[in-house]
Design brief:
By secondary structure, the protein is mainly α. It has helices spanning 3-16, 19-29, 36-45, 49-55, 59-72, 79-89, 91-99, 103-117.
Length: 119
């Protein structure tokens, strides 16, 4: 499933009332195809995965996504929310993030970047 299809599903799911869980799932979608070996250079070089993914989304799709987010989000997920979800779904990424000296900081920056992009 492409990021474009995910964004469409995301908007539909929001309307059902699962905004908080969907927001976490959407964010984790940025890491779907990322392995620990892929993630390590992002951490080491402080590179943004979120920025790369948003660069692939058209302005129209981003505007549509922003509309859903503004309409349905009551609050953004926290870094702790994301770590809890990663611990359940992607333990290998969770382990790398909590054990790397800048892992939590990187995740916070990614979350902040995502929030800024959808404002």
């Amino acid at each position: 499933m492409t990021i474009h299809e995910r964004l469409g599903q995301f908007g539909k799911s929001l309307a059902i009332g699962f905004a908080d869980k969907i927001a976490i799932g959407m964010f984790l979608g940025f890491l779907d195809d990322v392995t620990p070996e892929d993630l390590y250079p992002y951490l080491k070089e402080n590179k943004s995965r979120v920025t790369e993914v948003f660069a692939e989304i058209s302005d129209e799709e981003l505007q549509e996504f922003r509309g859903y987010a503004h309409q349905y989000f009551t609050k953004a997920p926290s870094v702790d929310d994301l770590l809890k979800a990663l611990q359940k779904r992607r333990t290998e990424l969770f382990s790398l993030l909590i054990n790397h000296p800048t892992g939590k900081e990187w995740l916070k920056n990614e979350l902040d970047t995502c929030i800024e992009k959808i404002k």
